[in-house]
Amino acid sequence: MGFFDKLKTGLSKTKASIDDKINGVFSTFRKVDEDLLEELEEVLIMADMGMDTSLEIISRLRDRIKKQNIKDAEEVKVVLREEIQNILEIDNTLKLGTKPSVILVIGVNGVRKNNFNRKNCK
Q: Going residue by residue through the chain (122 aa), what tens digit of pLDDT does each one get?
């Protein structure tokens, strides 16, 4: 199994874990209130989303819930997904025009990031 296959496998497991935890919160809380938002915030932080990113996602979610007068937990789930996608969107094109170029590799524990080298960049 190659580097990228291992990375995909690790990320798939992480995604499934986060999905399970978020769905668990929504199965526990039917009412859209501050308790629901606090639980979602905790799940995001525990999923290694980062404190600042988690707080920003929940802040945006809270604003949209108020502005759109959202009362349904399923609708909150849709808006949460949109906000996570919005905050994580990045320009993923490599700009390797400078010498030397530096690539920072991040990922899930256990996917052997230390095996990443020039031959994997082809």
A: 788 788 888 888 888 888 899 999 999 988 899 999 999 999 999 887 889 999 999 999 999 999 999 999 999 999 999 999 998 787 667 777 888 887 777 766 765 656 555 454 54
Distance CA 88, CA 93 (A): 15
Concatenated DSSP letters for 40-101?
A: HHHHHHHTT--HHHHHHHHHHHHHHHHHHT--BHHHHHHHHHHHHHHHH---------SSS-
The helix (run of H) or strand (run of E) holding residue 3 is helix 3-28
Domain spans of the chain, in order of start: 3-121
3-121 CATH fold: Four Helix Bundle (Hemerythrin (Met), subunit A) (1.20.120)
- Phi, psi of 110, deg, nearest 5: 95, 0
73-85 burial, b for 16+ CB within 10 Å, e for fewer? Answer: beebeebbeebbe
